[in-house]
Amino acid sequence: MEHRKILHVDMDAFYASIEQRDHVEYRDRPIVVGGRPDQRGAVAAASYEARRYGIHSAMPSRVAVQRCPHVVFVRPRFEVYRQVSAQIRAIFRDYTDLVEPLSLDEAYLDVTGRDSAIATAKAIKQRIADTTELTASAGVSINKFLAKMASDVNKPNGLFVILPGDAMAFIANLPIEKFHGIGPATARKMKQLGIETGAQLQQYGEADLVKHFGKVGRHYFHIAHAQDNRQVNPNRIRKSVGAERSFTEDLSNVGAMATALGAIVAEVETRLIKAKKMGHTLTVKIKYADYRQVTRSRTVDVPMQRATDMEPLAQALLTHHLEPHPEVRLLGVAMGNLVPAEGGKYQQLSLPME
Question: Which parts of the sequence bind Mg(2+) (predicted)?
C-alpha cells in the first residue's frame, strides 16, 4: 500500500519576522508583537532573540519585560500579515490543491501525487524565501500528526523527514509533553501514570487509555502507534466566530462589564454576518486579574446571528457565573456549532435563563 505524502509548513516567528524584515532597526533584537505592559497587553509573537529569554506567545507583556527588560514592543499589523499569508498560500496551491490552512502562518499539504515530497518541501521553502524574504520550517511524513511533529524538529528554517520505517522509533523517543495535542494538564496526568515518553505510551492498550482519558484516549493510542487517518481538508469548516477585549484597567463594576459585553456581542454579530453564519452555542469567556480564566456556554435549538438574540444570553451567562467581588481583565464572546445563515434569515428568540 502506498503511503500518503503529507507536509506541514510552519512559518518561523511569522509576525515578528515580518516586522524585522520591514524595519531594519528591529533586526537581531528581541522584539515582541503585541500590547505593551502599560496597556495590559499580551505577547502575540516573539522573535527568536526574545525567545532566548523564555518569552513566548500568550505570555502577559509585563512578564516579558521582567524576563528581558530591553525587549522592544511592536504594534501588530494584521493586514500586512494577512497579505503575506495570502502570498504563501498561493505558493502552496502551485504544488497541490489539497491545502488545509490552520492559521495565517501554517498549513498542511497533501502532495501524494508528486514524485518526491522532500523535493517539494525544499522547493516550497525556497519559493517562500524568494517571494517574502521569510523562512519556513517543514515537516514531511505519512500523516498529519507526524508531519506536524517533524516541522518542529529543526526550527527555524528547518526541514525534517519521518520515513514510514522510522515513525515508531521517533514517537518512542518523544517526551510526552512534546506530543501535539497533549496539553500540560494531560501530560501531568500521564506522568502520574508513569507515562513520560512515547515508548511508555506505546505500552498502554486502547481500552486502558480510554479508561483513564475518556474517548480522547483512542486518539492517544493511535498517535502513539503512528496512526492518523485524518485527511488534508481544503474546505476546513470554521468552528466558531468570536471576539474579545482586554481592559486597560480591571473591571470590578458589573454595569461596566455589561456595557463592554454588549459591544463585544455587536462585534460578533458583524463577524457572523460577514461569514454568513449562524450558531447554536454561545460561549462567554471571563479572565480575571490573576489570569484565571473561565468559560461558560449555552446551546439553543434555534441558531443565532443577531446581537439582539445573543446579548441577553451572554449577559445571563456573565452574571450567573461571575465571582463575587470580581476584577476582570478580559471578556470574550464566541458563537459555535455554526450553520449557514441561508441568506441572512434569522428568528428572534426568547431566551430566559433558568
Answer: 10, 105
